[in-house]
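Record filed here:
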Amino acid sequence: MYFYDNGIRNGLIANLNQPKKRNDVGALWKNFLVSERIKFLHYSERWVNHWYWGTKDQKEINFIEESGEKNTGL
């Protein structure tokens, strides 16, 4: 699950510590990149579907954009 704003995420999990005192900096960074990409697509009026893909053995693509017949993974 991605949040539109990392501040909301941090408030819900009650962790407002500075990055150097956190163990979830990777998740924060990933959430930031995905949420900013979604905002950019919205503001630039580019309508695409976006998906997450993962396997049982923990392989994943965190963000897939589907636009017409073109798919792009981030």
